[in-house]
Amino acid sequence: MNLKTIAVLIPCYNEALTVEKVIHDYRAAFPTADIYVYDNNSTDDTAKIASNAGAIVKHEYSQGKGNVIRAMFKDIDADCYIMADGDDTNPPVPEMAEIILRGEAEMVIGDRLSSTYFEENKRLFHNTGNKLVRSLINTLFDVNVTDIMTGSRAFSYTFVKTFPVLSKGFEIETEMTIHAAANNLRMVEVPTNYRDRPEGSESKLNTYSDGFKVLKTIARLFKEYKPMVFFGILAIIAMIISIILAIPVFNEYFQTGLVLRFPTLIVAGFIFIVSLLLLMVGILLEVIAKKNRQLFEMFYIRTKR
């Protein structure tokens, strides 16, 4: 394990108040690791402070955490990647790297919600949003992950090099979890302590706009990874509406022998055809999704080291 390389990845935007402490903490926890700070257009002294603290500082000019993670994953090669936030809310946990280096998981998730998160985090809607996202993903993708939104994670080389980063912002953690769940990659959760930001440090996460982006990402990935279920649900809804509209028309026909509501019958027939089309789209996309999973599995095996 001592021969393995570890890279600590710290995406930062205006974290001058906390980045130095974060670097020192992770240096103490992972003394042999290379610590990278990617500055994302900070307007304070984040980059300068990080450089003086001994980190390898790089710049990513496309705004958004997802863009920063994409650059990190593309640029850096290591046997184990530790991702940390620059706001000093998640202390380092060496056990996360040990699990990756032993080959026991492709992604280790730092679980804040089982420890001190709800006591330390004073933003009510953040807590509610975490619970909502957790319930949605666990239900839709048949997994049991406690903390979906945490920025404290560890990854294997294989995960990093086979993960297609499509999100641009804070929805990146959601995308990582769904990618692992949909492709049957091993995930392990390790409880981590959480401490709220120190006074003067401000969160860049907008509860409403970023929360909407996360929900939009879940819907998009559900459609892409499970198209049969997604379009099947829409088809069933359309078929039920069609039947509800058609029942009175047929009742009148059987009673009188006349069709008295032609417009309703036409609309019901049109919606019924739409439901069949949705079902066919789901079947075709399911075949494509299965083929993509097969291709991913072959690529994943070739990338394994």
Question: Would you give an account of this structure?
Answer:
The chain is of the alpha/beta class and 305 residues long. The chain folds into 2 domains: 6-223, Alpha-Beta Complex (Spore Coat Polysaccharide Biosynthesis Protein SpsA, Chain A), CATH 3.90.550.10; 227-303. Helix content is 54%, strand content 11%. Helix 8 packs parallel to helix 9 (209-225) and helix 10 runs antiparallel to helix 11. It is elongated, with a radius of gyration of 24 Å.
List keywords for this structure.
alpha/beta; Spore Coat Polysaccharide Biosynthesis Protein SpsA, Chain A; seven-stranded mixed β-sheet; 11 helices; 7 strands; 54% helix; 11% strand; elongated
Quick one: CATH class of the largest domain? Alpha Beta
Structural class: alpha/beta
The string of secondary-structure elements, in order, is EHEHEHEHEHHEHHEHHH
Mean pLDDT: 91
DSSP helical segment count: 11
